């Protein structure tokens, strides 16, 4: 950009360009550079996301065969007590997983699951949502084994806050109510 300004000053001094033309060109050049930078960032994000998507689809198509018996009852009147009883899960073709995890979250208790990358935070949440089932042990909500209820009602009973949360360019009210189009004005408050 400095070279463009210097060349512009040179041509203005020679009378071959006017100051307005140089200013207009510099403005146009900045606009183009910012757009090219945005496109470059978008392409980089797309390429990096493609690898993650391929990994996700490979995982989804692999050995996660959860039995889906017909006519399982719905999970109803959830109070919110969650228990992991000696839960073990190991990823296929890997030594990674979680092993013999037991804990209890009482009704109304707030819990933060924290730890370094690869510690098993997402695995715990995926097990709770029955993305996959434990190899050993069981998980219960209000003392009901989650394998004995249908997954749709289970997932409707859960709310997860991910560490990479982001907000839309709207009001806080709109951000809170974004997941429920039919929410009343009082519900998100």
From TrEMBL:
InterPro entries: ABC1_TM_dom, ABC1_TM_sf, ABC_transporter-like_ATP-bd, P-loop_NTPase, Type_1_exporter. Its main location: membrane. Keywords: ATP-binding, Hydrolase, Membrane, Nucleotide-binding, Transmembrane, Transmembrane helix. PROSITE patterns: ABC_TM1F (PS50929). It is a multi-pass membrane protein. Residues 1-48 form the ABC transmembrane type-1 domain. Its EC number is 3.6.3.42. GO terms for molecular function: ABC-type oligopeptide transporter activity; ATP binding; ATP hydrolysis activity. Transmembrane segments: none annotated. GO terms for cellular component: plasma membrane. It is found in: Cell membrane. The keyword Hydrolase applies. It comes from the Bacteria. PANTHER family: ATP-BINDING CASSETTE SUB-FAMILY B MEMBER 10, MITOCHONDRIAL (PTHR43394:SF1), ATP-DEPENDENT PERMEASE MDL1, MITOCHONDRIAL (PTHR43394). This is Beta-(1-->2)glucan export ATP-binding/permease protein NdvA. It comes from Bartonella vinsonii.
